[in-house]
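Blinded run. Sample ID left blank on purpose so nobody reads anything into the name before looking at the predicted structure. Input follows.
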Amino acid sequence: MTTFIGREEELRALKRAYELPGSALIPLYGRRRVGKSELILQFLKGRPGIYFLGKQAPAAMQIHEFLTEAAAILEEPLLAGLATESWSEALDAVVSRWRSDRKLVLALDEFQWIVAASPELPSVLQEKWDRSWRQAGNVVLILCGSYIGFMEREVLGKKSPLFGRRTGQILLRPFGYREAAGFHSRYSRIDQARTYFLCGGVPLYLLRFSDSRSIEANVAAELLDEYAPLYREADFLLREELREVTLYYAILSALAAGHTTVHAIAGQAGQDPRALSYYLQQLQELGYVERRYPLTGEPPSARSVHYDLADSLLRFWFRFIFPSTSYIRHMGADRALKDLIRPHLDSWFGQCFERLCREALPWLYLKEGVTAAFEVGQYWSKTTQIDVVGLRDDGWTDLGECKWGTVRSPKTIEQELDQKVQAFPNTRGATIGRRIFSRQKSKTAGASAGIRWHGLEDLYN
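Blinded prediction complete.
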C-alpha cells in the first residue's frame, strides 16, 4: 500500500468544512496527476460519502453508475434500479435517502467530463443548493476537475450558475521542491533536486522514482523503457484532453528546444503566429505551459512575453524522448541514456536549477523575516539574462545568478553578477541585493562583496 504523503493543509480545509455547521460546496481543481482524487479518498476515510468518477460517456450511463455507487454506499439497493436519465431526479433520490445526522459527502470527480455529457448539471446543482441543500446543512459537495480553465469558467466564473455559492475552494498544485524531497529521504540534496527537475512535484511521477536506485537508473527504467508507464505519459496527457495533438506536439517540442517567443514557436511549428494563441491558451489552462515576462516592476509589453514549459516531465520528454523514439526503440534504454541524454543532462539540470531557485526565494524571505509583499521572476533583454528577480514593496530588489555546475572561481561569478546588476532597469530606484545560488556554497564567497550565497542545503533546510 502506498503511503499518503503531504497535503496536510488541504485535508484540514476539507475536515473543517465537514465539521463546521451547515452544508459546504467546495470546488477542488488542479492539473492532471497532482493527486486530487487521492486527496478526496483520503478525506473520505471514516466519513460517509459517495465518490463518483466521471468519464467520457453518455449521460444516462454516468447517471446509472452514480446511482449504483450510491446504492452500495448507502445500503439502498433500490437506488441501483431507479429508471431515470435526469441528474435532478438521481440527486434527489440519493440525498432524500440519507437519514443520518452526519453530513453526506458527494464528490463528483472529473467534473468537466460529466458536464460535457450533461451541460445542465451546473444549473441542476445550483437549484439543489439554493432550494434544499444549503438550508438542510447536511451535504458536502466537492466538484473536482483537472481542466483548470473549465473549472475557473464553469464553476468559479461569473457566468456560471454556481458563481458565488462556493463555501471554499482548493487549487491543488504540484508539491514544491521541499515537499517533494519527502518522497526520497535516502537521496542526497543534489539527487533530491535532480529528481525534482525530472518529476516536478507530481506525486505519481515521484512515486515511480526509487531512492534505492541512482538517478540515471531511474531515468532508464521509468522514462526510457518503452514498457514503463511514464514513457508514454506525455502522449496520454495530451490525447486525454486535446484534439489536433500533432500541432500541440510541435508547440511543445519548440518550447523544449528553447524557442520561447510566439514567432519562434510558430517558425518551428510551421504555423502562422496569429494562429497559435488559442493553442497556447489551452496548454496554459491545463497547467502545462506558462506565460512569463521580464520582471522590472513596469507593465510588460506584448513583444516581451515568452512561453515556457511549466511541467518538468513534459520538459524532459519533449527535449530527450520525443525526438529520439526510433533510436530508443531500436537501441534500448541504456544505450539511449549513454549516447543521447547523459552528455547533455547536467546542462539541462542547470536550466531546471534556475526554476528551483526562483521557487526558493520566498522561503528565503520567510527565513530572513521579510514581511513586505513581493513578486518573483526573472529578467532578460537582448544583452542580459538575470536568473532570479525578487521585487519587494519595501524598496528592495534582489537579483540572483544560478550556477549548477562546479564553482571554480566565486570571484568571477560575483563580477558577472555585478555586470548584470548594472544592466538591470532599476526604474523604481530600489536598493539592489545580490544573491548567488549554487549546489555547494563557498565559505569565503561574498564575504567582502555584500553578496549572499545560497547552497542547496540553504534552500532545503
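Unblinding after everyone has recorded impressions. The chain has three domains: 8-171, 178-352, 357-460.
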